[in-house]
Specification:
signal; three-stranded antiparallel β-sheet; single chain; DUF3347; 5 helices; mainly alpha; about 150 residues
């Protein structure tokens, strides 16, 4: 009987952890964003390549992701192939717009997803935190921006 309760508790905790972060693509998107914040072009390329793999894995199980797959993969590949941080940040603009559209139509996380906006760049991005950390300017203007929308 104790083994049964233990097994149920383990399954419950695993399903709860999985439900909080339902999407590997959102995790990989955040990794691209974080690399751009830190100004690390190589890490941004690596994270964008991981995003491409995550989209391929999730597209078979989710129709919304499958519908957006081609655009998101192309945008992530542009970020991955660009070796200059300025080019990667420019490509990130459309990538973020399309990720926002996907996040609005498909629940990618049990946690809130914040759309943040930089008025200097006239561009948005997604974050798992309400604290603004700007991927378009990094350390130059780290806190430039505001929360524009919260996806629950």
């Amino acid at each position: 009987m104790k083994k049964l309760f233990l097994a149920i508790a383990v399954l419950f905790s695993l399903s709860k952890a999985n439900a909080q972060n339902k999407s590997g693509i959102l995790t990989q998107y955040y990794a691209v964003k974080d690399a751009l914040i830190s100004g690390n072009s190589s890490a941004a390329s690596t994270a964008a390549n991981a995003f491409v793999k995550a989209v391929a894995d999730e597209a078979t199980a989710n129709k919304s992701i499958a519908a957006a797959k081609d655009k998101l993969v192309a945008e992530a590949q542009q970020i991955a192939s660009a070796k200059d941080i300025a080019q990667q940040r420019e490509q990130f603009k459309q990538f973020s717009t399309d990720m926002y559209d996907l996040a609005k139509s498909t629940k990618l996380s049990e946690q809130p997803v914040y759309q943040q906006y930089c008025p200097m760049k006239k561009a948005s991005w997604l974050s798992n935190s309400s604290a603004v950390k700007n991927p378009y300017f990094g350390n130059q203007m780290l806190t430039c921006g505001k929360v524009a929308d919260t996806i629950q």
